[in-house]
Every structure is written in structure tokens, then in C-alpha cells.
Amino acid sequence: KKAQKTVFTCQDCGYTTPKWMGKCPDCGQWHSMVEGKPKAASSGLKAPFDLSGPGSRPVPIDSVDGIVEDRLATGIMELDRVLGGGLVAGSMVLIGGDPGIGKSTLMLQVMQSLAYAGLKVLYVSGEESVRQIKLRSQRTGSPSPNLFVYSEIVLEQILDVLDQEKPQAVVLDSVQTLYSQDLTSAPGSVSQVREVTFKLAMHAKKTGIPTFLVGHVTKDGAIAGPRLLEHMVDTVLYFEGERNHIYRVLRAVKNRFGSTNEIGVFEMAEHGLMEVSNPSAVFLSERPEHASGSAVTASLEGSRPILLEIQALASTSSFASPRRTVLGLDSNKVALLVAVLEKKVGMPLMDQDVFMNVAGGVRVTEPAVDLAMVGAVASSFLDRPVPRDTVLMGEVGLTGEIRGVGQMETRIKEAAKMGFEQCLAPASSLRNLRTPSGMKVVGVKSVSQALEHLF
Ligand code: TYD
Ligand code: MG
Question: What is the C-alpha to C-alpha distance for residues 401 and 370, in angstroms, rounded to an integer?
Fold first, then answer.
């Protein structure tokens, strides 16, 4: 038998080469090549999902059964909505997020919820002993005999156990700790993480067991992990939040069985994660009275409008090039909007440090929040508060024009529900708009018009 050749795999991007290199020619990373056995041809398949099976033949498309989406509700509404209505049989869901953000806690609570509903479920941990899992579970709920826990890192062992125990749902925590004996590389390496995910996905498809796979992501997202795996799984959820804030947002970045813009909101509490069913109320709860530098907007997250407080602080800089420090918003957008304020409104922000933040530690990227960002910066610079009962919506263009945003009615309704009485909105979005009683909608065409109205 020919001696097995080895390959070198870049731990950053997954590039493989037969000889060792100091620098990865693909991604340019230094010292990232790790030696391992090449993958067996059988497991090198690129399209693992919904295979017709060995020996099967192509069939006429009209004879194929429609997609039967048998959804299993987890009982945790914020998760079920993000999944698109619950778990799909045989699906593989990857949960990514920073270490310590609450992935294990969420997964344990999901398993507990399913166990209370009478399902036999299994939580496999490669990070904690069964006693540690038990301790955590005592914080988050009372134990159910339907929830099985298992501490193991050898994948083949875990697959055997799955075949014997036949749970109705399983969590594997985390992909970085699992280890396939078919490969020589270490747990957490690109090749291991791929192999483990591939085999688990195949197993899920074969058995129909909905499978959650937890993966740690480092701050820059560059890891041997979730980013590489996104194409191998059905659904990718990211659990986000600022660690020292209590709010957590669960966001779908890929979902074969639902939309990707739904979010779930949680609060990390003493006894685990609590669902936040009215995020607007929560995110506005700490809004300061009559303070400058704060503006409220209605952002649409999936099917749900959420009111958010955008905060800005503009203060005279002691640096040659003033700072733009941004949390939860796109920093390029902030730079652009500050430039618009300078050029189009004549607000001298050149020598100002500008800090921006979304209250509650949430992240927003929707263009509809532009006007609130502009409003918050202007409010801080002028040191005049935005009227407390006012919500700002609209995308800001490079010439300072206010551009239309979608689903105005939904947003305005949410604002009215939360007690707001005035809404600044793009003039172009007001046609055929039905407004709730007690809500005054002011159409604006430009940033300067909006600021004139506000201050
Ligand atoms: P964890 O689920 O271990 O994070 P991850 O699996 O993403 O690494 O969450 C750990 C943090 O959550 C830790 O700082 C403690 C906190 N926590 C609570 O505040 N309340 C709780 O009930 C639990 C179980 C954890
Ligand atoms: Mg964990």
C-alpha cells in the first residue's frame, strides 16, 4: 500500500497544499499551515444535502413530493420565529457567537423546553462535564428526565450514542471541541471542524434528528469555524450582544427554511435567558429626559418594527484628526452622515470627536435609521434635545436628500403604540399612508428641512 501523503491546511482560510509554506498564498496569513491527512474521497463531497441516495435514479419533477415542512416548535418563541416557525426535521442549525455570550445557556434552555414538552433530547458537551451542565440547568429551570446530557469529544463515539439513544433533538457544544478519529489534526483545526460538521450534517439528514451545532466566533470572525461552515448547514444563527449589556439578539444569517431578517431578543438574567417580546419598550426604557444627543427611530427587523434609541456625542477634539467612535452602527455610514452635515447643512463638525451608539447594545444596519443618526449628532452638537415625542425615519443620501423607506405604516404604528405623537418621515413615503389617530406625520425632503423642524 502506498504511504499516505500529508497535506497542509491553512487554519485561517482552509487553503490546502501538498508542501509546507510559511505564508498562505491564498489569504496571506503567516504560520497558519498545519499538517494533516488528506480527506478521504468519500467525505470530500461538496453537496451533502438532500441526496437521492445510492442507486437511485433521476425522477420526473412532478412526481416529487412537495416540501413537507414538519416544524417542531421549541417553545421558545423568540427562537422559533428566527427559525421560521420551528425546527425542521433533519436540519442542522449552527449557532455562532462570541465566547460567553450565552450560546450554551440558550441551547440548554431550548433542550429543557423540548424535554418538558415530552421529547427525548440530548445535550452533548465537549466543553463541560455533565455535572457542570447540571449546575447550569439548575439555574435555568427544573430538571426533566427527558433531557439527557453527555460529555464527549470523539465524534465517532457521539454518533454511536446518537444511533443507540435516538434522541428527537440534539445539541453539540461546541464544534471546536469535537474530534473525528479519521483525521490526525487537532480539534478546532479547519479540517476537523469541517469533517465534524459534514458528518453531523449527514447524520442529521439520514436520521431526521434536528441538530444544533454551537460554534465560537472570535471578534474578527476569522476562526476555524462558523464562517467556513455556513455553506454546510441549513441555518446559521448568530447570537450577538455586548457582553456587559444584558440584551442579546439572535439573528439568522442563513436559513434554508425561512427568512433571514427575523431577530429574536433575549435578556440574560439570573435564571438564564428571558424572552423579550416587546423590544421597543425595553430598548427605550432607559432613555434620558430632555437630553441632547438622543434620537429615536423605528427599525424594521424582519417582520417586526423595533424602536431604538440612537445616541451621539459630539465634542471638541484635541486631536489633529478627530475621532469617530461607533458602536452598533456602520462606521462608514457615520462618516458619511457627518460629512453631509458639514457640507449640506454647514455644521462645523471638522474639529469634533463624534461618538455614536445604539442604546441596549444592539446592532442596526438599516438605512431607515440614517435620519435618526443625523438628528442625534445635530442634537448633540447644538446641545438641544430632539422633541421627546418624536420618531425619525428616512435614508439620507449624499446630497442631503431624504430617501423613502419601506413599510412606513408598520413603523408608525409601532411608534404610536409606544406613545410617540410625531414622526419625521421621507416626504416620498407619505403617499396613501394611513396614520393612526394621535400621530402627526411630517414629511421631509432634506436634512436641513428636518433639522429646521426639529430644532
Ligand atoms: P454561556 O452560555 O456559557 O456562553 P457561551 O456558551 O456563549 O460561551 O454564558 C455565559 C455567561 O452567561 C456567563 O457570563 C454567565 C451568564 N449567565 C447568566 O447571567 N445567567 C444564567 O442563568 C446563566 C446560566 C449564565
Ligand atoms: Mg458555551
Answer: 11
Closest ligand 1 atom number to CA of residue 272: 22
Å from CA of 147 to ligand 1 middle: 19
Residue 1 forms part of a structural domain: no
Enter the pTM of the model. Answer: 0.77
Residue 178 structural domain: 71-277
Q: Which of 315, 296, 317, 320 is nearest to 307 (CA)?
A: 296
CA of 12 to the centre of ligand 1 (A): 27
Please tell me if the CB atom of residue 406 comes closer than 6 angstroms to any atom of ligand 1.
no
pLDDT band per the 50, 70, 90 thresholds, residue 389: very high
CA 120, CA 157: separation in Å to the nearest integer? 19
Residues 307, 264 within the same domain? no
Does residue 447 share a domain with residue 302?
yes
Domain count, the chain: 3
Does 300 lie in the same domain as 221? no
Give the position of cell 474578527: 220
pLDDT recorded at residue 69: 62
- CA of 245, nearest ligand number: 1
Residue 177 lies in a domain: yes
